[in-house]
Amino acid sequence: MRLKPPSLLISLFILCVQTWGQAGPARDMTLTVGRGELIQFDGDVKTVAASEPKIADVVVVSPREVMVNAKGLGKATIVVWEDRALPRRYNVNVVGDAQDYDVIRKAVKDAVGDSAVTVQGNLETMVLSGAVKSVEESKRAEAVASTYSKKVVNLLTVPPDADPRQILLEVKFASIDRSALQEVGFNFVSRNQKMLGLGSTQQYATPRFSQLQFQNQEFSNSTLNFSDLLNLFVFRPDLNLGATIRAMQSRNLLQMLAEPNLLAMEGKQASFLAGGEFPFPTLTATSTGGATAPVVTVQFKKFGIQLDFTPTVTASGAIHLKVRPQVSSLDYANAVTLQGFLIPAVATRVAETEVILKDGESFAVAGLIDNRVVQSLSRVKWLGDVPILGQLFRSRSIRKTNDELLVVVTPRFVRPVPAGEKVTMPDMVEDFLPVTKDDKDAGLKKPKKKSTQDAGKANPEFIGPRGHQEPKK
């Protein structure tokens, strides 16, 4: 028998190995996310592999069965090695469920109404395109789509915002302050060469004796100094007895009325102040070298009638107002003195509210009422308790105050005056420029047509860049 050369045997072995390692033709497979496919083989399965397990995963369930599970959108390749057979390759395309896309499109359409919106992409990335009516619709469509897809690309177009509307706020402040004061008091004084005496409840200013001097066991100097005679002074020289009596009754009435008109754009804040600012000293400490020295600085604080408001137009065309009216005044009754400075207190009434009104409607902020009664009673012990005569050793002060504030607010939509239209100016009480006698006569008589004879006559006129020069003769 004749043997084959060794080189021929080696070539046949290499050819068999290459043929054994080649895979058969690839097979296409389309799966829906969340579903799977069972593949059966004639021989035993030795090995399986997947290019992207996150998209398509493969599991050997029996020696001759393989389960392919669709995990995510995309494409992947699966290779299965079968015993004594060529490897089999599967190209897997994982897509979304068509019913899911219908659900997404319906949900987005319900969110935007009749706006034309197109939904494209997959459950990984979704693209919204088209046109909507407002920014709110665009945000709603994006929010609905984000519940179905991991990433949403919003390409929706929104029409440009309209010019903000201008709102005029007419405000009326009415403040009424009433106060009543009743004071009754007595101060008794006695002066002679033998005895000096003074009786008072210390509620009102009392007379003061001068420096006492004695000579021969008698008072050589016993004059009286009066810093406040109150409103009644009685003195009996024969009895050397005098009295200063305080019997006052006063009534005060203060009325304030302000009618500011504020113009603001929608969404912008406007403020108003009818009053002023008063200097308010503050004490601070600064280090100079190794010591700390106090330094007085002056700040200015506002007082008077203040108003802050922010208007916003709602979707229904109403005006949403955030209003903060404030009325404050200087209160010297509760003032303090610091480093020689008299610092008044500030009596303030503030109201802050939010309302919704239509054009021309009004609302009132009322009920800001402050009623106070302050009563002071002083008396001399024992003597003030005596019936009838004890009234002479008592002093009483009663102060009643009543403050009431009313604020009425009316918002209106306003528009600017068209170009070319003249704006009506307020009437002047007195003429700013002097007028000639002919101009006065012309204003009282109806204008007449000029004749050819009067055409040559020169009428008086004002000349110069400022118009206040003397007219030509």
Could you characterize what this model shows?
This protein is mainly beta. It has helices at 6-21, 98-112, 135-146, 437-444; strands at 27-32, 36-40, 45-50, 56-62, 65-70, 74-82, 88-95, 117-121, 125-131, 151-157, 166-191, 196-200, 208-209, 213-215, 218-221, 224-225, 232-236, 241-258, 261-265, 270-288, 291-313, 319-338, 341-350, 353-357, 363-379, 394-414. The strands form seven sheets. Strands 11, 12, 17, 18, 19, 25 and 26 form a seven-stranded antiparallel sheet that branches. Strands 20, 21, 22, 23 and 24 form a five-stranded antiparallel sheet that branches. Strand 22 (319-338) and strand 23 form a beta hairpin.
In short:
The chain is mostly beta strands and 473 residues long. It has four helices and 26 strands. The model is unreliable at 1-5, 12-21 and 462-471 (pLDDT under 50).
